[in-house]
Every structure is written in structure tokens, then in C-alpha cells.
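hiii, so i know i said id send this last week but things got crazy w the move. better late than never?? heres the sequnce for the chain we talked about at the cafe, plus the structure i predicted for it. fair warning i was half asleep when i ran it
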Amino acid sequence: LGILIANRAYQAGRWSEFYKSREIIAEALREQKAVEPHELILRAKVLSNLGQCYLATGEHAEAELYYSEAYDLFDATVGKRSPLFGMQAWACGNLRCAEGRYSEALKVLGEALYVEVVKDGLSVSEMMKLADQILQCLHESQSTSPQANLEPVRRALNELIEDPRWDELEGTIDLAVLAHKMALIYVASAWSGAGERQAAFYYNSRAVAILQDLRTSPQARQWLVQAEAIHNAVLIPGSAV
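okay and structure toks below
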């Protein structure tokens, strides 16, 4: 209830109500620790809600405190394949982006993407949001070396490509755009292994095939130009990533 009130107050700019709601959540956390010390999943949820309240107001140090504890508790209780963990990893990624720590955000966004890949039911829209955020982080971290944080991203993409559910998804424009962006992640990550090149080629090939089938749509034709350009310039055999 506290987070619902806080969200409404934040959207309406009712700041006294927002800060009061945040304190209600903080009090609920204190009471939960005292009364239900072994209910760690519940505690992690309250910690995450409280961190969200601090992130909303740009109080990043406080958000980090609560988000990190929630992340660790979800990891220890439900594990890295759980939607609860994925939600928290994504929240931590949002915090890193807000702080301008784009290279570090890649690790937790990759973990969130992995949860989207292995959970029941693939969501094109959710994977698209994460792909966009990962591409943004790769762009913003060009001056650093993000490779150490990219392994969770690679794991998620390589897992998805082996999942028969991916091949069974309806060939929509959204799926084609997602497949193209998955290929762009491989290219932007500068992964040079033969397996990574093959995976990028596979993702983009599917994008091109779908967009060619739908080329009567102006939107499909626009994306087809981009997908074919990457295909011909970067992904065909003999080209350089």
C-alpha cells in the first residue's frame, strides 16, 4: 500500500505525501525485520520498494543501499532464474544508468535478460526494452572496457538462440526488430569469436527474412534497410566485426 501511495503522490507532485509514504515503507521494513526476521523474500520486496522511492528522487546512495540488499536476498532465496531476481537486477540496472555507471549496468541488465529468456513465456516487448537499454549502455561505455560485465548478456543471448520457443514466435515486425537489435548487441560488444559471429548472423538473418515477408509495410521496409546494411557490411562471411 505504501508504494502505491508513494507512486501516485510522485506522479502528482504531492511531495509531502510522497515523503510520508516513503517513511511508512521504511517503518514497515523495520517492523518486518523485528516481527518476521526469517521472511527474507518479503523483506527483499520491501527493500526494493524503498529503494525505488529513493531512486525516483535521485537519492542514489540510499537507493543503492536498499537495492543491493534486495538483490542479495533474492539471489540467496529464489536464485538467478527467478522473475523476482530478474526484476531486482533490472532495477539495479536502472540505478546504474541513472548514476552514469553504464558499464556496470551491463552485468545486471544481462542477468535480467537471462531471466526473461528462461522464464515461462517469452515476452518480445520486455526483451526489447532490455535490448534497447543494453545497446544504450554499450554506446555510453565506449570510452571504457565493458567486456568484464558482458558475460551475463552473452549468456542470455546464447541461451535464447538455442531455445525452440524463440523459433516458434510469430514473425511480427516487433520480433524482427528485436532479432536485429540482438545482432547489434553482438556487433557493439565486439565479440570476435566464430560462435558469436554465427549467432549474430543468425539473429539478423531472421530479422531480414521476417521483414522481407512484411515489406508491404512502410515500417518493415525502414527496418529492412537497416538490417540488410548491417548484414552486408558486418555479418556476411569475410566481413569484419
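btw The two ends are 50 Å apart (CA to CA). thought thatd interest u
miss u guys!!
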